[in-house]
Automatic annotation (TrEMBL):
Gene3D superfamilies: Coenzyme PQQ synthesis protein D (PqqD). Keywords: PQQ biosynthesis. InterPro entries: PQQD (IPR008792), PqqD_bac (IPR022479), PqqD_sf (IPR041881). It comes from the Bacteria. Pathway: Cofactor biosynthesis; pyrroloquinoline quinone biosynthesis. NCBIfam families: PQQ_PqqD. This is Pyrroloquinoline quinone biosynthesis peptide chaperone PqqD. Monomer. Interacts with PqqE.
């Protein structure tokens, strides 16, 4: 079960990069490409395998107002379902 203390990381072979032509983030993985929205991209940038969901939420709270841990968990859960995020 994923909790606030869980530590997400991008799965092996998954890379978040910025497409300067389209001016948006893209998530590259062996099976394809995802174009995450700005919220998901901000969360993914912090998925380094060292920060917990709580720490990611705190970091996002410094940049944006109204960040809720449950929303961060929901984004990460959906990305986990797509098999681009793993948990350590």
């Amino acid at each position: 079960m994923i909790t606030a203390e869980s530590v997400p990381r991008l799965r092996r072979g998954v890379r978040l990069s910025f497409d300067h032509v389209r001016e948006t983030h893209v998530l590259l993985f062996p099976e394809g490409v995802l174009v995450p929205n700005a919220t998901a991209a901000a969360v993914l940038e912090l998925c380094d395998g060292a920060r917990s969901v709580t720490e990611i939420t705190t970091a996002l709270s410094r940049r944006y107002t109204g960040v809720v841990a449950q929303d961060v968990l929901a984004v990460l859960s959906r990305l986990g379902d797509r098999r681009v995020v793993a948990w350590t």
